[in-house]
Amino acid sequence: MFSGLLCFKKNPCSFLLFIICSLFATGSFAQKAEVKPKTDRELTRKIEQAIAGFGGDVGVYVHHIKKNRVVEIQADTVFPTASMVKIPILCGLFDKLHSGQLAYDSVLIYRDSLRYDDGIVGSLRDSAKIPLSYVLMLMETISDNTGSLWMQALAGGGATINNWLQKQGFVHTRVNSRTPGRADAQRTYGWGQTTPREMAELMTLIRFGGAISPDVSERMYRLLGRQFWDGQALSQLPPEIKVAAKNGAVNRAKSEVVYVHAPHGDYVFCITTKNQKDERWKADNEGYVLLRTLSAILWNHFEPRYAWKPLEGNEKWHY
């Protein structure tokens, strides 16, 4: 869908990027510019070996932007998003902000009726005031669930967000929870659903300024670059490397989408699982281990000369 545009070496300040982003937003450029990426066979083999015998279903999509090489393993199979759904919610909310229906610097009033769990937002007292921008930060940085459902409602609800996704060409990525007509999908996939390819492409769309507008995309990308939950895929990347990410976890599914600004070329990946036999909420959960293992394989494949590995004892900080 969007991968053909990414074979260009883009300078975010260049006129070329401005033109590409403008055409991206209208959807008029994608088909003409489509350059089919080639499969990275060696990396595919490494990943297939790593997921062999996994107790559940695994989906993987990797795209090295500069080389235009991909790995596709169940890349178009639908998986639960878990908290990765907060990226589509972010887009839906910023669409309202961009149109002037909401204000980024507005102050919201929390009500107990909004409470979903004991996260930061759900622990506020009734009638507490909190800036909308703070709730957005909490949604993406610490994955606050009460705040996320609040933002989903302010975005117009799941149906409005899904309509935005459909207009961008996303066929499978949808919000299910609290969305009319999607009860069956919610029973199967939970809060949201996506494919590894589509979630990686949504992250890439934001990275290159094609989501709503270049300035909106930049604001969203900065939010996605501040992650508290860095104990899985991010733990296998050098701490000095810039990343944007969102992960998700429910009992039988673990997932993470990461855009990596690597020294020899950016790459994006999405790893998803479902139907996991291991439902433990422990650092050595098979899904968590898979996220770390595959992230390390990708980094070492793309950056073999980068002298770095996780420090001894790093594993005790996984959660």
Automatic annotation (TrEMBL):
Keywords on record: Hydrolase, Signal
N-terminal signal peptide: 1-25
Pfam families: Beta-lactamase2
UniProt key word Signal: yes
SUPFAM superfamilies the UniProt entry points to: beta-lactamase/transpeptidase-like
Top-rank taxon: Bacteria
Protein name: Serine hydrolase
